[in-house]
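**User:** Here is a favour to ask of a fellow structure person. Please take any protein you like and set down a full record of it. No explanation is needed for now; the record alone will do.

**Assistant:**
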Amino acid sequence: MLNSIRRTFRDLRAGTSGNATLLVALGMPVLIGGSGLAVDTAQWYMWKREIQYAADQAALAGAWARSNTDSASVYVTRAQQEFTANVSTTSTISTTPNVRLADYNGGDDNSVIVEVSASRTLPFSNFITGRATTVNAFAQASFTDGTSYTACLIATDEDDDGAITIGGNATLTAACGLAALSTSDQSIVINGNPNIDPGWVVSAGGIDEWLSTHTDAEINEYMSGLSDPFAGLTTPSPSPNSAQTYTCVEGGTRTTGDRRTKTDIFYTYWRGRNANSATQINNYNGAGYLADVTGTWGTWSIDILLPPNSVDGVTPVDGTPTMTQVSGSGNNKVYRREVVRTTTEIANAETITTTTQATLSQGTYSGGFQTRCNTVFNPGVYVIDGGEIRINAQHQVTGAGILIILKNGATLHINGGASINLTAATSAQLMNIGGLSSAQATQFAGMLVYEDRASSGGSSVLNGNASTILNGKIYLPKSDITFSGTAGVTSACLLIAASNITLTGTTDMTTFCPPGMANTDEVSSGQATIKLVA
C-alpha cells in the first residue's frame, strides 16, 4: 500500500501537464487580497491627506484667533469651523477636532494643537484585521503677539537708499522712534558720528550697523507690515476757498482810550484907556458884570482813537481871551475879559506801536509766497498751489488753528533766524472755519502741513532755531525734507513724515512732544506672527 502511494506522488511530481492552472489557483487568493489591500491603502492615504490638511488649517485659524484680543476666547470655534470647511470625503467619518492650547518653545500657552481622526470599516482590511480602519492627524501652530510701533520721523519712500540719512554731528536724543518703509538694504544710513538715542528704529529694509553698535535703541530691520499711517487721507476741499495774495501793511503808533470833556467860562474886569493898557479891577460888580459859568462833564466816549501818546489824567486848555468894553469912558473905560476853558479827562489810555505786518486769511495762494515782513496766519485752511512758502530770516511768523495744503509741486522752506510759532487746527476749527466735513475734520485735526498725493513733489527745508515752535504733523509723501537746527513744541507733538528725510550735522532735537504727550500714529499695527510647527 505504501509503495503504491509513493509511486502515485512520484508520478504526479514527474508530470508537467496542468502546472500553470494549479499555480494560478494557488496564487489567486493572494492576488485578489493584494489588489483589495491596495484599494484600501489608497483610501487610507486620501483620508490622511485630507484630514491632515484640514487639521493644519484649523491650527492656523485657532492661532490667528488666539493672537487677537477680540477673538481669543473663541479660538476653538474658529479652528473647528476651519476644519469643517476643508473636509469633504471624510466629513461624515471624522471626529470633532480636539482643539487645545499648549506651551511651545519655552512659551506659555502660545500654540494651538488640533487632533482629529477618521474611521470606517473597509472590506479587505477588515477581513484581515477584523476591525475598522482609523487614520489620525495632529497639527500645532504657534503664535507670537505683535508689537505696535509709532515714530516721530517716518520716511515713506518704498525703495530708496538712505530714506533716512543722519549726518555729521547731529543730535537726536528724542526717544520717539525712527521708521523707514523702504525695502532697500540701506534704508537708514548714518554718516559721520552723530549723537542718537531714538528709542527704537524700524525699517522694511536694512539699517546701518552703526545704530546697533553705538546706541541702545531697539533695532528691527526687514520688518513686514510697516505702513504709512496717513496713506488713507484724501486731500480736503476747504470752503470758502477764495484767491488770496500776500501783502505787507505798514505799521505805526496809535493811542486809544476813553475820553470826556466839559467847558467853563471865567470873567475878569479891567480899567483903562484901552484894553492893552488896562489893569485888573478886583471885586467889580458894576455895569456889564457876568458871573463865571461852571460847565458839566459830557458822557464818556469809549475806546476811541486819541492823540498819540496820550496818558490818563485831566487836562484844562484855555481858549484865546476876548476883551469887551462894558462901561465908562476916557481913562475910566471898563473892559470885561472872557476866557473859555475846555477840560479833557482821559482814562484807559493805551499806546500801541505796530510794525509792518502781513495778516493772512484762509484761501488759495497761487504760486505760494515768501515773507517780507512779520506775518500772522488767521485760523483756517491755506492751499498753496505751486511755488513755495518761504519763511525768511528775521521775520516773526505766527498762526494758531491752521492747516497748510501743498499742491502742484508746492514746497515749504523755513530759513534759519526766523521766529516761528505755528499750531495745527483742531477738528472744530476745521469744521467751523475751514468748512471741512466732520469726518475729514477728525482725520486732519493736528495736521499742520499736508502735501497732496497728486503733487509732483520737490525738496522742502526746515532750518529751525530756538525760536521755532511747530505744534503738529508735517506730512510730505511726495517730497524730501532736510531738517537742521532745532524746533520746540508747546501744545502738540511734532511728527515729520516725508518721502526721504535728511538730518544734517546741525540738527539738535531732544523732544518731539510736550511733557505728558506722545505720538500715537502707528507705522506697525502689531500684527502677530503665526507659524505651523507640527
Notes: The two ends are 72 Å apart (CA to CA). The first strand starts at residue 98 and ends at 102.
